[in-house]
Design goal:
CATH topology of the largest domain: Rossmann fold
Number of domains: 2
Helix content: 25-40%
Shape: globular
Distance between the termini: 31 Å
Number of helices: 17
CATH class of the largest domain: Alpha Beta
Largest sheet: 6 strands, parallel
Structural class: alpha/beta
Amino acid sequence: MKTGLQCGHETVGLELPESTVVLEMKPLAPLADAAAAVREALAHPIGSPPLVDFARGRESACIVISDITRPVPNETILTPLLETLETAGIARGAITILVATGMHRPNQGEELARMVGREVMARYRIENHFCQDPENYRRIDVIDGEPIEVNRHYLDAGLRILTGLIEPHFYAGFSGGRKAILPGISSFETMKFMHSYRMIDHPRVANCVLDGNPFHENGLRICESAGVDFIVNVALNKHRQVGGVFAGHYDRAHRAGCDLVGRHSTAVVEEPFDLVITSGGGFPLDATFYQISKALTCARNVLRKGGTIVVACGCQEGLGSREFSGIMRSVGSLAEFRERHEAPENFVIDQWCAQSIYQALDHAGRVYIYSPGLAAQDVEKMGAIPVSDLQETASALAARHARVAVSPEGPYVVGMVRAAARAGE
């Protein structure tokens, strides 16, 4: 059989045995007119009055958008959204678009223009969130003794709107909704709590799990504390076309979107595989190895203990942040990672994705990495095996393993073994 793995800006062709099981998204028809669907959702939202009614009488508004690491059709969402706010009487100069960078770098210049469109960029005030700048946020709550701090631009707005993409998420269950606030526009101290070793190690902090998931439930509590008037979330199909728009109440509209995404983005299998070949999801998701933790986690979930993973990822920006790169270049196993970073006082930025990577490496017998953007020594240091010829490696491994699966879209598809799926795990 022939398939292709998304890798950076390319699709790498691959031939595998006909017996290979393909894990892929179920078809989701694209909407005929996504912008019109957004307008319809704003006028007839889920669990909420129409946005224009919410907006009347408000003196200002803040719209939170995802950063460059998410393939959100921001311009498609923003154009009707901004028109609605101005129609309701909110002055253009009183509207702020806030980029939910989390702990990522700011998005500026040409990059920002690609994200929101030149017209929106020229007409509206756009701010990036900076999680380590105390002038950027203030405290609104305390959970388990830890400070909950959120961006001031958002908190000071008369109308607060969250936008984003709903897809499976290996910590929050699904992205979108409350995740635009945490981690999107929260402080570093707040993210230390929500991304601690203990939180990431919780068995219910997992793909497609909401109930009983402390990451999700704390996110809802923070939404209550910060205040959310309205959300606009979209679901995408495998071609990154809009297949659904969900607007209105921050929990009810988000849940409706999660139901659709859960049906189209999961693949249930009867038993785990001996070999899983996967992708980092292509650009922009695989721009750094930091994000490849999602693909490795998805592969781990359908892999037998001691099995083999092959992952293709572009990583044109290398490993990732200075802090993440420092972890990956100094730690060689899950046991070593736990020893260095389990204690809260030893927390460092980006350690949570490193934790997930080492958990996958520990579960697998071997992990092979094909990546044009990574140095071989960096791959070897983390305990993985660098690959220069993906086809040769995949063919040799497939010949030695009985049950083989391939996931061309990587983390956009969540594989589940049937027993675990029934348990909601």
